[in-house]
Design goal:
Length: 263
């Protein structure tokens, strides 16, 4: 083989290589099943493609995600390119049981065309929970190329309220406003300053509804002070919370706005 022929062969091999730009698929251990090493966390943001895999097989991208105790998370899939032909197919973004790979949650649509999708969920238990996230079922199936891309993001949606106070003459009122256009289900955790869980509560809030709750209605919170965390299934920022500690004897009030984890 002369030098010219060798170079020609090398170029042909390069051109005929895997039609993918997705490093999670070109790794020796890919992200094509629950053994994926790709673990999402708060603030994760990645761009993937669904280019056809050897076989040919339609690509699937799997992720791990751990939801800490008494907290909530959201995963958003957006930035989809045209040939992915994402639609209302429920299997395009799923949350799966990490042990059994059973689907435990289908996505919801962000907009009317469902080009962007979201999953949001709560872990109301006292232990962290590991799940898988799976992106699959692109409309282009085995015709997908490296140009058929999407973005995936993960964000913790737990709200923190650093202060409530029902000690002395103060009474704390909690305001929960749904600023989103979807119904939000929330789990409220009231903590003593030393981290002991004092009380839990649940609330369903319709779009744009305001709930006003006097925290002393819970006997376990009378005479107590501490903090509040709220796990909910709304979008990041969708639940707007403020606590107001009122002191009737002086007329003073002390506001504590709820906060989301930043980026
Ligand atoms: Ca991929
Ligand atoms: Ca993959």
């Amino acid at each position: 083989m002369n030098k010219t022929t060798f170079l020609g062969l090398a170029l042909a091999l390069v051109v005929a290589g895997p039609a993918t730009a997705d490093v999670w698929d070109t790794a020796t251990e890919s992200d094509n099943d629950s053994n994926t090493d790709n673990e999402l966390m708060h603030g994760s943001e990645q761009v993937h493609d669904l280019s056809v895999q050897a076989g040919p097989l339609a690509d699937q991208d799997w992720y791990r995600i751990t939801t800490p105790a008494q907290s909530s998370f959201e995963v958003v899939m957006d930035g989809t390119t045209g040939d992915l032909n994402v639609s209302f197919d429920e299997s395009q973004l799923d949350r799966l049981d990490a042990a059994t790979s059973a689907v435990i949650q289908d996505h919801s649509c962000v907009g009317s065309a469902c080009f962007s999708k979201r999953l949001s969920w709560r872990n109301t238990t006292a232990s962290a929970v590991l799940d898988n996230i799976r992106v699959s079922a692109a409309g282009c199936t085995t015709a997908c190329t490296a140009a058929d891309q999407y973005r995936i993001r993960a964000q913790e949606t737990t709200v923190g309220v650093s202060r409530f106070n029902n000690a002395g003459a103060q009474i704390t009122v909690l305001f929960s406003q749904n600023v989103s256009d979807v119904t939000i289900n929330g789990n409220y955790f009231y903590w003593a300053a030393n981290g002991t869980l004092l009380q839990t509560g649940t609330l369903t809030i319709n779009p744009h509804q305001l709930n006003v709750f006097v925290t002393t209605l819970f006997p376990a919170l009378q005479g107590q002070g501490g903090s509040i965390t709220i796990a909910h299934d709304g979008p990041y920022g969708g639940l707007n919370v403020k606590s107001v500690a009122l002191e009737p004897s002086t007329g003073f009030s002390f506001d504590t706005p709820g906060t989301y984890k930043g980026f």
